[in-house]
Amino acid sequence: MISRRRKVILSWLLVAVAVATMLAFGVVDGRDDRTNAERAHDIGATIACPQCVGQSVAESDVAIAREIRAEIGRLVVAGHSDDHIRARFAEQYGDWVILTPSTSGVSGLVWIIPVVGLVVGVGLLGVTLSRWRRASMTGEEVTDQDRSLVESARAGMRERRDG
């Protein structure tokens, strides 16, 4: 029979494998089988309409958006990469037309900070729960440090929820 500790370790290992698998599939572009029309639409959805407020060229039906969609279609058929096409429109109209934040430089922090915060929060919660479990097994009292960690985690969660 498997001990409780081994079950816990095995369950955390399975969670880690599941998370790593999801991250791997999220990073790898599994849409290589897209048609040129689908690629053009996906690219158009990431480029802001220069004339409209809050719309991509894929959503807008003004003349400039139709022209940009036609140009995107021509560039896709010509074999240009998605990044090259976006860069071309950013050069022409400015970086503001790119609706998706960059994954490099300072803009890359938009993608990294939430993940780091989640990992740190889960780690602190795990350490605190582990201390509490050990304390309850040995009859020790919960320390003020543990209580303050839990309170700061609760306060952070309230701020995110209310903010």
Model description:
67% of the residues lie in helices and 0% in strands. The chain has 163 residues and is an all-alpha fold. The chain has three domains: 1-30; 36-100, Helicase, Ruva Protein, domain 3; 102-163. Helix 2 (36-44) packs across helix 3 (63-77) and helix 5 runs antiparallel to helix 6 (144-162). The protein is elongated and about 75 Å long.
Topology:
Blueprint: H1 4-27, H2 36-44, H3 63-77, H4 82-93, H5 109-138, H6 144-162
Tell me the overall shape. Answer: elongated
Tally of contiguous helical segments:
6
- Kindly report the CATH topology of the largest domain: Helicase, Ruva Protein, domain 3
- The CATH class designation of the largest domain is Mainly Alpha
Q: Number of domains in the coordinates?
A: 3
The span between the termini is 47 Å
Runs in which pLDDT lies below 50 for 5 or more consecutive residues are none
Q: Residue share in helices?
A: 55-70%
The secondary-structure element order is HHHHHH
CATH superfamily of the largest domain: Cytochrome C biogenesis protein
Radius of gyration (Å): 24 Å
Helix and strand content put the structural class at mainly alpha
Mean pLDDT, all residues: 84
Major sheet, described briefly?
A: none
CATH architecture of the largest domain: Orthogonal Bundle
How many extended strands? 0
